[in-house]
Amino acid sequence: MNKEEASVDSIQKEKDRGQNAYYSSRPKLGGSGPSKLRQQFSRGMTYFLVVAASILFYFALLRVTNLSEGFSKIFQVLKPVVYGCVIAYLLNPIVKKADKYLAPVLEKKVKTPGRAKKTARGIGILLSLILLLVLVVTLCNMLIPELYSSIRNLVFTLPGQLNDLVDKLNTIKIDDSTTGTLIKAAIEEGTDMLQKWLRTDLLGRANEIMSNLTVGVINILNEIFNALIGIIISVYILFSKETFIRQTKKCVYAILSPRHANMVLHLTTKSNEIFGGFIIGKIIDSAIIGVLCFFGLTILNMPYAVLVSVIVGVTNVIPFFGPYIGAIPSAILIMLADPIKGLYFIIFILLLQQFDGNILGPKILGNSTGLSAFWVIVAILLGGGLFGFVGMIMGVPTFAVLYYIVQMIMNYRLERKKLPANSNFYDAMSYVDDDGKYYHSEEGEDGNEVNNNNKEKGK
């Protein structure tokens, strides 16, 4: 090689180094090919990680109490962040509407598009927070005085109402037969126990009730403080939501293969559709039912109108069982004050729930979860048994996401086997032979194979 060729070669190397300067400053992950040593090392690391994970899981089971306490403490510390995420999620539809309608208007008046979008985002967040504040203040001004008055009247009138009930039970005329004697003895024993509870147990537990009330007030103040911090956090989340989404998407593609990453992102989008449609729709539906209940009880001149409306509206968030959970204690409260009005309330609440279940609910919610009534009941029982009131609400959309994942896996496996994915194809008259061909007995004695190109996904 002469000097001229060496000079050209060095110039080309410098040029290549300049073009690839960005990549040369970053570490290169992986190798050019899976050597035998690399394969053995990878297999050994897999075995090591499996054994280490098994040991950690074993010790975690031994110290499950300490772990649960640790997770509970971490959750308490991060509760403002959780509140912030929830508030941001609920306010996000308002912010999206503001971005959609305000940004084009501001872009005509502001020269820089980026500034117009930021201004529209700020206005949307401000409007959503003002709406949230107005809603909370209005509800507090309406509910707190009425709730205080209703609970105060309930506390002062409940002993008298129970005594009147005891007197009415004592005045019931019962015949002298054996059955009548047993009923009379049961009534006398029940009234004695009720009077004893009113005179001794209820008064004796007054200090315990007051201490629990004090602890409850302190907990409420702590939750209010966490909610205020959560509102501040929600502002940052709403301002930077696109950045968080991009960073999360980047991490998913960095950690997983493209196929698995796309699947994770698809499931995330579907989960957002299910949770968003269900939660926001259920809140709107329950708020409307609570307002209608208040107007109806006010027109019917029912006692405890505000208290009962709050109970009915809050419990209506729980699917299926919610109306009954709210109606039963409300009916008992009204019956203690006026039995006839209690019967009127039962009729009114049945009509209201029929309106909600057949007209209002389907209009607002539609088929947001894709679950049948049976799976809704299973989800509520499972979620409520594991996580209480929150589990009864969140159990339905969570179960809907799991149901969608299982359905997607089953449909994929059926499509690989060239079998129909629609559940309607698998009735009592259909079968699949040992060769994997689908037949339906109504199509002929020899059977005709279904055209799998026209099959549709099933549930």
Automatic annotation (TrEMBL):
<feature type="region of interest" description="Disordered">
    <location>
        <begin position="437"/>
        <end position="459"/>
    </location>
</feature>
<feature type="region of interest" description="Disordered">
    <location>
        <begin position="1"/>
        <end position="35"/>
    </location>
</feature>
<keyword id="KW-1133">Transmembrane helix</keyword>
<dbReference type="GO" id="GO:0005886">
    <property type="term" value="C:plasma membrane"/>
</dbReference>
<keyword id="KW-0813">Transport</keyword>
<feature type="transmembrane region" description="Helical">
    <location>
        <begin position="74"/>
        <end position="91"/>
    </location>
</feature>
<keyword id="KW-1003">Cell membrane</keyword>
<dbReference type="Pfam" id="PF01594">
    <property type="entry name" value="AI-2E_transport"/>
</dbReference>
<keyword id="KW-0812">Transmembrane</keyword>
<keyword id="KW-0472">Membrane</keyword>
<dbReference type="InterPro" id="IPR002549">
    <property type="entry name" value="AI-2E-like"/>
</dbReference>
<protein>
    <recommendedName>
        <fullName>AI-2E family transporter</fullName>
    </recommendedName>
</protein>
<feature type="transmembrane region" description="Helical">
    <location>
        <begin position="44"/>
        <end position="62"/>
    </location>
</feature>
<feature type="transmembrane region" description="Helical">
    <location>
        <begin position="331"/>
        <end position="352"/>
    </location>
</feature>
<feature type="transmembrane region" description="Helical">
    <location>
        <begin position="220"/>
        <end position="239"/>
    </location>
</feature>
<feature type="transmembrane region" description="Helical">
    <location>
        <begin position="388"/>
        <end position="406"/>
    </location>
</feature>
<feature type="transmembrane region" description="Helical">
    <location>
        <begin position="274"/>
        <end position="297"/>
    </location>
</feature>
<comment type="similarity">
    <text>Belongs to the autoinducer-2 exporter (AI-2E) (TC 2.A.86) family.</text>
</comment>
<dbReference type="GO" id="GO:0055085">
    <property type="term" value="P:transmembrane transport"/>
</dbReference>
<feature type="transmembrane region" description="Helical">
    <location>
        <begin position="123"/>
        <end position="144"/>
    </location>
</feature>
<feature type="compositionally biased region" description="Basic and acidic residues">
    <location>
        <begin position="1"/>
        <end position="18"/>
    </location>
</feature>
<feature type="transmembrane region" description="Helical">
    <location>
        <begin position="304"/>
        <end position="325"/>
    </location>
</feature>
